[in-house]
Each structure stands twice: as C-alpha cells, then as structure tokens.
Specification:
This protein has three domains: about 10-30 and about 70-240, Jelly Rolls (Sandwich), CATH 2.60.120.1440; about 255-260 and about 270-330, Immunoglobulin-like; about 340-425, Immunoglobulin-like. The protein has a 17-stranded mixed beta sheet that branches. A five-stranded mixed beta sheet has the order 20-26-25-22-23, with no helix packed on it. It is elongated. The protein has four helices and 33 strands. The protein has helices at about 10-20, 35-45, 50-55, 430-444; strands spanning about 25-30, 70-75, 85-90, 95-100, 105, 110-115, 120, 125-130, 135-140, 140-150, 160-170, 180-185, 190, 195-200, 205-210, 210-215, 220-225, 225-230, 240, 255, 260-265, 270-280, 285-295, 295-300, 305-315, 325-330, 340-345, 355, 365-370, 380-385, 390-395, 400-410, 420-425. It is mainly β. The termini are far apart.
Length: about 450
C-alpha cells in the first residue's frame, strides 16, 4: 500500500529521516516557552559562538520566538555534560557497548545509556528502555547505534537509531507524541507509536505488529499492522504482504519434565515456527530462541523453573507473524540414583561375579547400566537396560572399572547420570586359576 494524503505526518517523518541521515550524534531537544538559541547554548553547551551556529544548524528564522515544541538539534560534541538517553533492562550473554569511539566494555543490567553509544550484541541479547516507556529487544548478532535522541527524562521523545546489521523489536507507547525511527543501510522505518520488528542484513525487513510503520527508501510505503515488507540493498521496496497469523496453541501453559511438547493448529502453507523464551527472574531477559518446522516444538535443554514464551509462525517468504504468549514451566527431572552398592558374590562356577544394586527411584520405569574402564565412559564394556534395581555381571577385563546408572522415565527420556563408582575386578577362574597355582608352587 502506498502512502495516502491522510497520513502526511508519518510520511513526512520518514522522508525527513532520509534527508538527515548524514547528521549524527545530535541531542534532540523540544523547545519550551521562552527558549532562545542564546539561552540554550549558555545552559547546555561550552562552545564559543554556539548560538550563531545553532541557528544555522536548525534553520531557525527568529531565535527570540522559537515555537513551543520545535525539535532542535544540538550536536553532542557541543554538550557540556553526558546526555543519558536510556537504561538497560536486561542482558543475557555477550553484549558490549562502545562509547566515544573507545574500546568496548560489557553491557550490564541497570546501566545508563548515553547519546552516541553503540550496542554490540554478539552471542547475547539485551532489552533497553529509551525515554519513559519505549523499549527495544536487541537480538544476537546485532549492532545498534543510539545516534540522535532526546534525554530520557524529556516529556516528549524523539529517537533516531541506526541498525547497520541485526534484528531489533520495538515497542513504542502511542499517544505521547513520540517520534521513533530506525535507519538501516537501505531504508528508514519511522513511527509515532507501534510495535514492530526491523531486520537488517543484505536487505531491510520490517514486520508491523500494531499501529503503522512508514518505510522510506527510494520510495515510501505504509506497512500496516499484520503486514511486512522487504527493501533491497539498492532501495527497491517490494509490496507490503500479509504476515502469518498468530499460532493457535493447544494450551497457554505447559508444565512437566523435559522434553516438553508445544503444539498448535496447523496453518496451510505455513510450516516454520519460532519460539522465544524469556526469564521470569531476570527482568525478562531473552534466554533461548528455538526454530523448527511442523506444528509441534520439542523443548529441551532448559534449567528448572518457569519461562515466559512467545510463539510465532514464519512464512515461506521469511516473515514472522504476531506472537501468542505462553508459559513453560520445567519441573525437576529424574534425579540421580542413590545408594549404589557393588557386592562380590560366588557360586559353584567359581567365577568372580559382581552384583550392582541401587535404591529405586520414583517415576523411573527402567535403568541404564554402563561399565567402562575409564571414568569418562569413552568406550563401554557393558551397556544394559533393566527394569529391576540390580544387575549381576561377570567375565569383565581385570583391573579398575567404573559403573554408572541412569534412570529413564515412561517417555523414554534419561534423567540425571550418577557420578561414576569405581571398583576392582580380578577374575582368576579356570585357566587363570591353574597358572596362579603353578606360580605359587614355584615360589615354594
């Protein structure tokens, strides 16, 4: 859909964003009653001749009558103090911040973000807040520059960010006059209040979940809620197309031992899915992202506890649709077996036999017994599944051996492996007994 005349505000913002793309590192200030260029320079900068240059920089025709609400750009290098533009809500994994073009340092939860900061998420993710309520989720393998922004305490907000690469998800609170845009190498996505995603790689991809996003490149397009668009590196935009629907889950809460199965109603033509898991104990940090195909997800490898999750479907064109919220609670798995004993037994055969036994474990339907000559079980001598809580073994190699027992539940999934238990095995039956007796006679 092309931009219509009834949306001049959003269209103008997007086009203006392209025109000012070269302007970097500006503090965005909204004029108050009685503000003049001279007063602003005296109050906030230490630059000689600031007021003259500020007038030119912002094309101010009459600095003694600046209309209230006028957005004024003040270059960051003129400012006499650091400008705090936001805070870090949560961090998971390796995320760095570069400040003033210096070396990077680790980004930490609760830290302030300054105008001009560059956030670099490699194998980690971060959730940040800009202004009072606007939030962004920065996904792994992303770089985000906080280029031109208002101070975080400003009642009106303008935020112009740059995403050279990676993925971000934006939640802008509507109804507060907030101006928000994200620029990539091929486009600018500008809004006044919405929820949307921006992906920057070889092209730019925008997915609108609520509200509307004006995407400006060589031409401008309006991406309404439930639509997505791709813009090629050269600025050529494809059509806005419908996103996949939100998945209809069989339940919104899944609890149990791992693995946990999450399923939903199949959708014709949609086969791929995405599930994000967020910690309920770490300010909503993104901890896991799962992808797959089909109408069912098998979730494993999580620590015990509950996670907030969001499930979405992915179209064949690579667009991810709106999410369905759910909760996943991982209950303790089968614990390690206890009270393992190894007893030497004898019978008429004269063989050196060992009876390995352990305490029964609730909910275990069988046990896997492994015996190896090394504590790492690189090459097992015995691997046997039993339903009883004891096993008898013989005819093992002589020397120091190791045994471990793993419980298995009714789904066929293994519980925790017990620590290896060492024992010495020395079988001197049959021919071995003859040579041992001969050696004893020779000694006599």
């Amino acid at each position: 859909m092309r931009l219509r005349a009834f949306l001049p505000g959003i269209a103008g913002l997007a086009l203006c964003a392209l025109a000012t793309h070269a302007v970097a590192g500006d503090w965005l200030y909204f004029a108050k009653q009685g503000d003049t260029a001279w007063d602003l320079c005296q109050k906030y900068t230490s630059k000689n001749g600031c007021w003259i240059e500020l007038i030119k920089y912002n094309n101010i025709s009459n600095d003694r009558e600046i209309p209230v609400g006028t957005k004024i750009r003040i270059p960051a290098q003129w400012i006499s103090r650091p400008i705090v533009v936001g805070t870090v809500l949560s961090v998971n994994g390796d995320v760095q911040v570069q400040r003033n073009n210096t070396d990077t340092e680790s980004l930490s939860t609760g830290a302030n973000l300054l105008l001009g900061d560059v956030i670099i998420a490699t194998e980690g993710s971060a959730r940040i807040r800009l202004g009072a309520d606007n939030s962004l989720l920065i996904r792994p393998n992303s770089t985000l520059r906080l280029e031109n922004l208002s101070e975080h305490t400003s009642p009106r907000q303008a935020n112009e960010l740059r995403l050279p690469r990676g993925k971000v998800e934006v939640d802008v609170v509507p109804g507060r006059g907030t101006l928000f845009e994200i620029g990539t190498p091929s486009a600018v996505a500008a809004v006044r209040g919405t929820r949307y995603r921006v992906i920057s790689d070889d092209s730019t991809q925008v997915e609108t979940l609520a509200g509307a996003v004006a995407v400006a490149s060589g031409e401008s397009s309006l991406v309404a809620a439930g639509q997505g668009i791709k813009v090629a590196r050269d600025g050529r935009a494809g059509p806005a197309i419908a996103l996949p629907p939100a998945p209809v889950l069989s339940s919104t809460r899944y609890a149990g031992r791992l693995p946990i199965q999450v399923d939903w109603t199949p959708v014709d033509g949609i086969n791929a899915w995405n599930i994000d898991l967020f910690s309920q104990a770490s300010n909503g940090a993104l901890t896991h992202t799962l992808n797959g195909e089909g109408a069912q997800a098998t979730i494993s490898g999580l620590n015990e506890g509950c996670y907030s999750a969001q499930a979405s479907l992915i179209s064949s064109e690579g667009f991810r649709g709106p999410t369905t919220d759910l909760e996943i609670c991982v209950e303790p798995g089968l614990g390690p077996i206890e009270r393992l004993t190894i007893d030497k037994i004898s019978d008429a055969s004269g063989k050196d036999k060992r009876r390995i036994s352990w305490a029964p474990l609730e909910d275990a339907v069988e046990y896997r017994v492994e015996i190896a000559s090394d504590a790492n079980f690189a090459s097992n001598l015995v691997t046997r599944s039993v339903r009883d809580t004891a096993i008898t073994v013989h005819d093992l190699p002589r020397g120091k051996l190791y045994v471990r027992v793993t419980p298995i539940d009714n789904k066929g999934y293994s519980g925790q492996k017990a620590e290896p238990t060492a024992f010495n095995y020395w079988d001197i039956t049959g021919a071995s007994l003859f040579f041992a007796a001969l050696a004893l006679l020779l000694l006599l």
